[in-house]
Amino acid sequence: MDITRKRILVSGGAGFIGSHLCEKLLKEGNEVLCLDNFFTGDKSNVVHLLNDPYFELIRHDITEPFLAEVDQIYNLACPASPVHYQYNAIKTIKTSVMGAIHMLGLAKRVHARILQASTSEIYGNPTIHPQEESYWGNVNPIGIRSCYDEGKRCAETLFMDYHRQHRVDIKIVRIFNTYGPRMHPQDGRVVSNFIVQALRGEDITIYGDGTQTRSFQYVDDLIDGMVKMMESEDFIGPVNIGNPHEFTMLQLAEKVIELTDSKSKIKFMPLPMDDPKQRQPNIELAKQVLGWTPKIQLEEGLRNTIDYFQKIV
Ligand code: NAD
Ligand code: UDP
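Output (structure tokens, whole complex):
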């Protein structure tokens, strides 16, 4: 056995972010075990990796225990778009909470380092701006987003308690809105929705008046930040990984229309319950401790994403 080659498990590895992560880890000379139940992910996202002898694709639901000898675990399994995580809210909580317990139990047993893909949603509808890691958030515990937000908050608690109680080697990354190739065309998230609508010449659906903001990070920057976090020493996080450039949904719609040269018109629709009004990461901690900053700005990232959707839509 090659002892320099790490054996790395990626739960949710056939999803949007997971597939890019598997690709990067393989490129860096590691062995990758990709675990997925294919709820929102798809084999097509990793089909190009199947011929690599160091890549294994395993159909598994992390609400059930899993055992394998690994050195590192990236825990990404969880539907991420509101449409998908609300489709079966109880299952979403089970995936976040029971999934975290199973992955942490595995890390404890085999002494693996484990990284949790947490989210800016743990800040809820934030009352401070931009959001820094010390902020505890403003989250509705009984709303339609709660299955995701509270599930992810509980997962962070579990990570901290496995660390305190069992000395498990943990890392927590709070991911802000990320976009790029291999987003599911029907997953309902704003970047994929707007691009698909613009390419088809359909109305661009803005929820509310479009003044709410998000800060969009291109997937390659996120993967770079996650791997840097995993490889860092003496730092467990939580750390924000996101691009601080903030845009209103109206600005995003206009940019997508311009870049696709689309004839689509903007259509305003009701704002979903508990939709956060604004979101922007403070990334000072990631800069200082990881030496990480995002490199790809919205226009370049959108062009790459539009190229991808042009091929599949
Ligand atoms: P995605 O839906 O494309 O990927 C999630 C993957 O997990 C899918 O392949 C899905 O099939 C799999 N999965 C879901 N439930 C599972 C289960 N019980 N067992 C095994 N596999 C399961 O979403 P994504 O955008 O790639 O998100 C990946 C992770 O990053 C998620 O944990 C999400 O919460 C987190 N995140 C994403 C964003 C973003 O903007 N994309 C922002 C914050 C956090
Ligand atoms: N949104 C929108 N039109 C859409 C999809 C989403 O205006 O077709 C809005 C949504 O209400 C939210 C923002 O875009 O204010 C980001 O939504 P997304 O689901 O991508 O991410 P999240 O709300 O989880 O940050």
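The chain has nine helices and 13 strands.
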